Amino acid sequence: MEGIGSLQELVRHNDFFVKIDLKDAYLTVPIHRTFGLSSAPWIFTKILKPIVTFLRSQGLRLIIYLDDILILSSNAEGAGRDYLFAVSILENCGFLINLEKSVGTPEQVIEYLGFIIDSKSLSLSLRPEKTAEIIDLCGKALERVSVSLREIAKILGNLAWAIRAIPFVQSHYRDLQSQYIESYNQSGGSLNSTIVLDQNSRQNLSWWVANVRESNGRPMSATDPDLTIFSDASLSGWGAVLNEVSARGPWTLQDRNRHINELELLAALNGLKSFTSQVSNLSVRLMLDNFTAVHYINKSGGTKSPALSAISASIVDWCEKRQLSIEAIHLPGVLNVLADQQSRMRNESSDWKLQKSTFQRILALWEPEIDLFASTWNRQLDRFVSWKPQPEAVAVDAFSLSWTNWRGYAFPPFNMIARCLTKIMKEEAELILVAPVWQAQPWWPTIMELASQPPRIICPEIALLSDPLGNPHPLLERGSLLLAVWILSGNASKTAAFRSEWSSCSWDVTVRPHQLATRAHGTVGSVEGMAYWSINVSRSMLSATLYNIEGYYVGKHTLVIKLMLGIFNSNPPKPRYNSFWDIGSVLSYLEGLGPDTSLSLKSLSSKLVFSLTRHNSSPLICPVSCLERYIFLTRDFRNESTNSSLILGLRSPHPPIVASTIGRWIKLLLSEAGVDTTIYSAHSTRGASASKAVSAGLSIESILRTGSWASESVFSRHYNRPINKEAFEEAILDGEAIRDEL
């Protein structure tokens, strides 16, 4: 029997349509009661067959379904003429024409058999009344706690009717259909039984309510495919080919336990994802050598296998998001050679997956944005670039892309490391690179040159690298592979700044040929001569970046604590200076400068900041008189912005000075007074004054209170002698006065 299926092959672009509806079709043909109504449609079709044959012999293109006749013509005049001719023939044969339902005016959009046919877009869609009915039926079922099987059967009938008008329609009622079949069998075939819809069935109905109007309409006939993808699966992997470009991948241990039919469907899905991730609005033809997979793709699932239906649903979801039309065709296995070869090829020896927990630590440190060397099974980030086409890869071949647009993460095959370093330098890019610590490799000096932050050694463990089946890397099993993660930059200023800082604080400077090269016996020797406090900073850094050891942070492990205690005891903190300069010589120098009124602002500033204490024994070194003179000289420089600052700069506009400037002035004065400032800093005045007080015999309690030292042990460790606040200034400026008091 003819119908919409025949029409799809007959209609042409921009055709005009007319329609003839026969009135009281069955009643016009007497049928013996014995045959009944069940055979009436078949008999009526047979009776009309000679008439239809005659009309077609006269050149009329038409489709007939029972009593509905649709005539097609390439122009309006021809359609009108064919309509009149067909009507006259039918009436002469004794048939009645239903003029109310017939359409004699040629149209390019017409309703036929419940569908809207549009020759301009060559599309088929449901009537608005039909979509409203579907929404109403599905909506009412969702509102109820339980639904009868009869109601579900009615819903499924309406949804199945929409197959020709809505793409992938079966996929959106498979769960409801499966629950209906299961419940129907359990009820013994009673349609009056009621069931509670499960979550998946309710999701099916919700999709129809929300999307039937938007999804309504699909092409009437299959167009020539834009892409033809060959796919195949073996028990070890999958393969796909498009225009001699291949894609392949291994099965994981979990996938290997699947049935071969599931693997064939997964191979088709992977091939589809590999070659269509960046396209849309295309027609795709899949060539497979498995009949079951072909059926489940073309039917958008089935009722026999939930696992196959789930994979089919993934295929539908992928195609719907990209508006791809898809068709699967069976290809004998002997002809599907290329895809079969790809599915059976062994996994690349350089294809390994880094342990997820290790990558999470890298992610916490540097936050990469894209994985540049990955495949579907071992990718670390959602956005990844594959070497060959892979499902869900954002691009193919990382070397063909610019690396300057993002911070990339790369764990490339080891033979591509040198090429990666060259690209980093060429593009001045930034890259997080995982590479083996192979100092004998030609690229090792380059990787050190491009480092912009300290590298992190990855703790070697058996499970660090694994293949698709979970097998560890053989070099890790032998304990002969050590990996490090580097953050590299092609920006010369970044790397130069890092090397300058790193060479002075972490590596031996005297024996290395390169700024980042370690000594031959390792980095432990680089702590020789370092103070306990400097080593303790390194301990904190290691504790923050390395894995825990036996459940302890590295810095809190008992062995590390004992080691640090030994370092402290073997090299206890020492005073910065073995001896202090004589403060008396500086005071004599200040006296030799003459009266404050004769000093320049520069000399007066240095003298003032050196000692701000009231003393009247010698006017030439009295800080009070010096301060009075300083305020007098700087009176013209002061304004609202500088009134709160005592010491001002020497150059116009004489801004307030900072601590470093005061220190520089003190060192200048000490230098002019004959003190070696290559040894002593400005802060040494504190120790020199205290030592002078000690030599004058002041009590340690006075010195502790005046100098704000935490304890006697701190003071004694640095100054060796214990000074009375009332006599502290005199002890420094005039030792004779103290001796007289004693």
Structure in a nutshell:
This protein is of the alpha+beta class and 742 residues long. The protein folds into 6 domains: 4-121, Alpha-Beta Plaits; 126-219; 227-344, 2-Layer Sandwich (Nucleotidyltransferase, domain 5), CATH 3.30.420.10; 366-490, 3-Layer(aba) Sandwich (Rossmann fold); 532-570, no CATH class; 583-741, no CATH class. It has 27 helices and 25 strands.
Secondary-structure topology with pairs:
Elements: H1 4-10, E1 16-23, H2 40-57, E2 61-65, E3 68-73, H3 76-92, E4 96-97, E5 103-107, E6 109-112, E7 115-118, E8 123-126, H4 128-143, E9 147-148, H5 149-161, H6 174-186, E10 194-195, H7 199-215, E11 218-219, E12 227-233, E13 237-242, E14 245-250, H8 260-276, E15 283-288, H9 291-298, H10 306-322, E16 325-330, H11 337-344, E17 353-354, H12 356-366, E18 370-371, E19 385-386, E20 395-396, E21 408-410, H13 417-427, E22 430-436, H14 444-450, E23 456-458, E24 465-466, H15 474-477, E25 483-489, H16 492-505, H17 532-545, H18 558-570, H19 583-592, H20 601-610, H21 623-633, H22 659-672, H23 684-695, H24 700-707, H25 712-719, H26 725-733, H27 735-741
Helix pairs in contact: 4-5, 4-7, 5-6, 6-7, 8-9, 8-10, 20-21, 20-22, 23-26, 26-27
